[in-house]
Specification:
Helix content is about 0%, strand content about 50%. The chain is built from no helices and eleven strands. The strands form two sheets. Strands 2, 4, 5, 6, 9, 10 and 11 form a seven-stranded mixed β-sheet that branches. A four-stranded antiparallel β-sheet has the order 1-3-8-7, with no helix packed on it. A hairpin with a 5-residue loop joins strand 5 and strand 6. The protein is globular, with a radius of gyration of 13 Å.
């Protein structure tokens, strides 16, 4: 079992920045991939970014490329999502997810574990 706990959400003005954290516990993450998804009101959950834990390769949705950065801290077993130049359309609940087979896909059904989510609201 893997437990994921997100933090760092909040209210920010358009153009501002936030850093989300996802602390993982329960199993080693050395052979997994970690991802961030988001879900806006009335919309389906969508892929935002992912990182393969062992090699550090990163992947991004086109809508956030150049503005968001995913990273990990091995010592803290934590994944981060640095979000810059935030827009109103980035408003959503952001979820952290883990795929224990280290695949990176944009399909939420491929991920094994999920956090509870953290709200990000960007005011325009």
């Amino acid at each position: 079992q893997v437990q994921l706990v997100e933090s760092g959400g909040g209210l920010v003005q358009a153009g501002g920045s936030l850093r989300l954290s996802c602390a993982a516990s329960g199993r080693t993450l050395s052979s997994c991939s970690m991802a961030w998804f988001r879900q806006a009101p009335g919309k389906e959950r969508e892929f935002v970014a992912a990182i393969i834990w062992s090699g550090g390769n990163t992947y991004y949705a086109e809508s956030v490329k150049g503005r968001f950065t995913i990273s990990r801290d091995n010592a803290k077993n934590t994944v981060y999502l640095q979000m810059n130049s935030l827009k109103a359309e980035d408003t959503a609940v952001y979820y952290c997810a883990a795929d224990m087979s280290a695949q990176v896909t944009g399909w939420d059904s491929d991920y094994d574990y999920w956090g509870q989510g953290t709200q990000v609201t960007v005011s325009s």
